[in-house]
Amino acid sequence: GPCYCDQACARTLDCCHDYAQTCIVIPCVVSQWSAWSGCAEPCKTTYRVRVRHIIQEPRNGGEACPALEERAGCVEYWTRQGTECQQSLIPALITTGGFGKARKKRAAADGNERAGYCVEFQLVAITPGCLHSHHSYTRWMHYLREGHTVCVECQYPALHALSQHCFGDGTGSQKNQLLHWQAVGNHRCKGTWRRIRQLDTCSCPSVHSFLFI
C-alpha cells in the first residue's frame, strides 16, 4: 500500500524502504566560526568578518541553517604598509586641565617648553562610568556633560615633535565626524565628541578645561 511518514512504523517494523531518506527530519549542521579577519579597510571605522560553512544541509523540514557570516565593528590605526593612520581615528586621552600647571613647570625646568594650542569639542556621548568615579583624582570627570563645549589643551610633552600635534586631536577629521576620547584614570569613562575648531592662541577657561596626554 501507500507509504506515509508516520514514526509509528519504527515500532511496528513496517516502514517503507526509503523511510530514512524521505521522512527522518535532519537539521542543518554548521562548522565552528573561523578566526576574525582583519579590518575591511585600514584607517576607517569599518568591520571585520568571521565565517562558518555548512556540514549537513537540512532535509525533510529540518531546522534551517543559521547565518554563515558575522560582522563586528573594527578600526585599524596602521595602513597595510605599516604607517600610522590619520590622527582623527586615534582616541584622545584626556585628563583635567589642572594638571597642566605642574606639567608646564617641569617643561620649563627642562628647557623644553614649546608653544601649544587648544581644540574645542562638543561632547556628544558620555558613558555612565564617568559618574561612578569616587577617587579624588577622578572627580573632574563628574563635570563632563553631553552637549557641553569643552576646551582641550595640547602642550609639551604630549605635543608630538614631528607632527606638532597631540594624538587624538581630530586633525584631518571631516566636519561633524564623531571622534572618540578616553579619560585617564578611569577606563570606564569615555565617549564621543565633535571637533569645533582649533585655537592657536590657547585660552581654555578653568571650567571644562582638559589636557591631551
TrEMBL record:
SUPFAM superfamilies: TSP-1 type 1 repeat. The keyword Aminoacyl-tRNA synthetase does not apply. InterPro entries: SBSPO (IPR039942), SBSPON_C (IPR056801), Somatomedin_B_dom (IPR001212), TSP1_rpt (IPR000884), TSP1_rpt_sf (IPR036383), TSP1_spondin_dom (IPR044004). Pfam families: SBSPON_C, TSP1_spondin. Keywords: Disulfide bond, Glycoprotein, Signal. Residues 1-28 form the SMB domain. This is SBSPO protein. It comes from Struthidea cinerea. The gene is Sbspon_1.
